[in-house]
Specification:
This protein is about 50% helix and about 15% strand. The protein is of the alpha+beta class. The strands form three sheets. Strands 4-3-2-1-6-5 form a six-stranded antiparallel beta sheet. The two termini are about 15 Å apart.
Amino acid sequence: MKKSEAEDVAAERKKQTVVEQVMLDQLSRAVISDPEQNTRGDVSKEVQGHLGLGTAPMRFRKRTLHETKIRTKSGLTENMLSNKLRFDSRIVSRNGRDACRDLIGFFFACDRSLTVYEFRQFGKNRTNALPFIQKGVYQHQRGQKKGKAYDLTDFYIGANLTFQSIDHNLPKSIKQNPILTLRVTSIDEVAMDFLKDSCLEFNQGYSEQLIDDSKVFKKIQGMLRETLSKRGVRVVTGLGKYFRHIDKNGNGFLSQTDFKEALKLFHLEVPEQDFESLWLILDDSKSDKVNYGEFIHAIAGEMNEYRKAFVRKAYMKLDFNKTGSVPIVDIRKCYCAKKHPLVLAGKATEEEIKSSFLETLGESCSSPEEVSYSEFEDYYEGLSIGIADDDDFVNILRNPWGI
């Protein structure tokens, strides 16, 4: 079996494991937590005095599955839970540990609720799937639909799902930002088509405001395209390093003055009126602070989710312990320039290509000893600007990293 085929099989097994765990969790929880469980058996036993000494009535105890009636009038059924949309997602974060978390979500058409599970693998054979976002009906926390509940139209590749971090049992690194943003990276197209056909209210239109926002981004990216196509890697990695240096709080947010100074420093000319339009879009919370990762993506563009998936895969291969950083020594050991076009053409040696790569990557790093996920991503984000074809970009990642 080819390596790519083996990866596809492993990915499908992973998704099936999560699906089974979700169905088990939700069906069990629906039956166990149904209030109807408290109204019959325990009441009759209480009246007849059959409850043992020191045994509290069931309504005051934590019920287990074998103590339920199983059949309830209001409990969820497997049929209701089957009308679901499965989607893969990632955390939009500069933190390597969080950005590389393996998340699989489900949107349930029956009650418009959603849940997100994290898939974890321990060694070669041990895996588990744990709730990351508990099942519930949630509302948008940012953007034009802020305050509105999620519906089927909100799920497409590239969509952002936002949640209040404080409302969930999340790692401290994620709670540093009051808003958790999940990016949808893929969806179950078959399930989507089925749910669209059965949903009378489905109408995936885009608001005029969303279209206007996109025009602002494209206009600024168009102004900077020539500059970025020539030195995209240097600019994007340089901006990332500069922003990390002046981000004294370490929360990823900077002021309008900081961004204007950075544009001037890197010779990126954006007219004042266009900058103000951009700021109004990015600073939707009116806090006078904007996440610098979002700012870089707004002015330089962002690689699509297909490309991003390979960048994450390459980094996770290097950072197999998920620490969020990789020693530069390991980068040197793993990088293979044997299939580089210049090497194949006899115009450069493997060592020359490797040294050039390490030098450029090293210049963007805050520490000379290690490479963080955000630094690794910035390098390929800049490289992506000058490569039009997705397959060409993916091959640039596949060959040196063996993915």
